[in-house]
Write a structure and sequence with these properties.
about 240 residues, Growth Hormone, Chain: A, transmembrane transporter activity
């Protein structure tokens, strides 16, 4: 017995690719969950206090919350690609730029690793759900769940990579300080991790397409709205002539 859910009419190829692309993009954004794993290394490298590192996640979430509406506004005016491209430039490039800013003080580090990454999370976040779910209007909850699971899996994917790059032999810090052979790997880790994030987001962007049906419906609604306005204007002019 063939399930109707898997028929080509219900699951168009571009729709499936769009969901996969959204999953990959959100998987990259799930890098956020590794900030806590990176904090001990950053504290050791920069010589900052643990209380200062507690602000990193808070800043990212605050910037994400502020920038969430921006993505929706941009998507309505320019299409979904611009918010996703801005997300790639902000998040992936922000992590990679931290290779430089980690050597220039806490403010520079927060600017690239927290503020830029927060923008990269917030601007494309809801746009991805909207584009992917438009292909499957009867299964929106399923599509959103699949894509959101990518965000949740970020820690599972990126945390082992971070540890493998920076501290493959699980060397423990002494009085909060890691040995030089561990610390020297920290800046390079940002380049590698930022490159992985950027690559996943780029793959996600390339896999996503607007649903033709939703675009047609939008034009139909716009057309019917224009016709209604014209008809109402004609009725008003007719009444005025009387």
């Amino acid at each position: 017995m063939t399930l109707h859910l898997f028929s080509s009419a219900v699951m168009p190829p571009w729709g499936v690719l769009c969901v996969i692309g959204g999953f990959l993009y959100h998987l990259a954004l799930g890098y956020f969950y590794t900030v806590g794993n990176m904090n001990p290394y950053v504290i050791s490298y920069m010589g900052i206090k643990s209380s200062q590192s507690a602000w990193f996640s808070s800043v990212i979430l605050a910037v994400q919350a502020i920038s969430l509406p921006v993505g929706g506004v941009l998507a309505k005016k320019t299409g979904f690609r611009l918010p996703l491209i801005l997300g790639i430039l902000s998040s992936g490039a922000g992590i990679m730029l931290t290779y430089l800013t980690i050597n220039h003080g806490l403010g520079a580090y927060v600017a690239t690793y927290c503020i830029l990454f927060g923008l990269g999370m917030g601007i494309p976040y809801s746009v991805i759900f909207q584009v992917a779910s438009s292909w499957f209007p009867a299964h929106r909850a399923t599509v959103v769940g699949i894509i959101a699971s990518g965000f949740g899996l970020g820690a599972l994917v990126f945390t082992p990579i971070q540890t493998r790059i920076i501290n493959p032999y699980d060397v423990q810090p002494v009085a909060g300080k890691y040995p030089p052979e561990v610390e020297e790997r920290i800046p390079r880790a940002f380049l590698i991790l930022g490159g992985i994030v950027l690559g996943l987001e780029l793959l996600g962007l390339l896999a996503m397409r607007n649903c033709p049906d939703s675009a047609a419906q939008g034009k139909l609604k716009a057309g019917s709205s224009n016709k209604t306005n014209v008809a109402e204007k004609g009725d008003i002019e007719e009444l005025q002539s009387l």
